[in-house]
Write a structure and sequence with these properties.
This protein is an alpha/beta fold and about 210 residues long. About 35% of the residues lie in helices and about 20% in strands. It has a seven-stranded mixed beta sheet with strand order 1-3-4-2-5-6-7, sandwiched between helices.
Length: about 210
């Protein structure tokens, strides 16, 4: 299957069993930019101001370029989740956004969650906290490094990937049913790096 087209924001019904791929990461990790690059459309709102995404947004991947026809079959939903770690607004509001995101992850029938981390700095403490929570909740997830074009050296990215892989293998020795994928995708929304590989992983999930 080829990524034909995406419709604007969708609202699937509670009994909709269409596969769902969610995207989560620290505020300002480049989540909306990566989504737009994957969809090849500017549907997700991007901003230099962290915390712009405050609600859960669905984008339907339809079977043809006729995205305005409500009868078109949707292959899958891409789900844009509010970022964590920093957001604009009162502390109470920030906590509420993150509480709702956790509730969503526990209840939603996700095919896979893509956990985004900044390739320029690697996994931070909060990233690892979220990762640990996903493991405990047994939510299937894959780590995606974003903004690789902004890294000073390729060696830095390799170091971050090795760090992630070493943690995975250590955790797997403790729990061989680990919900994390062993793959790490290095991407750049700006240059399109890694997008084909990420699409291949999504399509492989749909063919299972």
């Amino acid at each position: 299957m080829e990524p034909a087209a995406f419709g604007g924001q969708q609202h699937p019904s509670p009994d909709d069993t269409t596969p769902r791929f969610a995207f989560l990461g620290r505020s300002n990790v480049g989540k909306s930019s990566l989504l737009n690059a994957l969809m090849n459309q500017s549907l997700a709102v991007t901003s230099k101001q962290p915390g712009r995404t405050q609600k859960v947004h669905y984008y339907g991947w339809v079977a043809s370029e006729n995205t305005h026809n409500s009868m078109e079959r949707i292959h899958a939903y891409f789900v844009d989740l509010p970022g964590y770690g920093f957001a604009v607004g009162p502390d109470e509001a920030v906590e509420e956004w993150q509480r709702r995101t956790q509730q969503f992850l526990l209840r939603a029938p996700l095919t896979r969650l893509f956990l985004l981390q900044d390739a320029r700095v690697g996994p931070q403490a909060f990233d690892q906290t979220v990762q640990g929570w996903l493991e405990e909740a047994d939510i299937p997830f894959t780590i995606v490094l974003t903004k690789s074009d902004g890294a000073r050296r390729m060696a830095d990215i390799i170091k971050h990937v090795n760090q992630i892989c070493m943690r995975y293998h250590h955790r797997q020795q403790i729990d061989d049913t680990l919900s994390q994928s062993p793959f790490v995708y290095v991407t750049s929304a700006k240059h399109g790096t890694g997008l084909d590989e990420l699409w291949t992983s999504i399509e492989s999930e749909l063919s299972l």
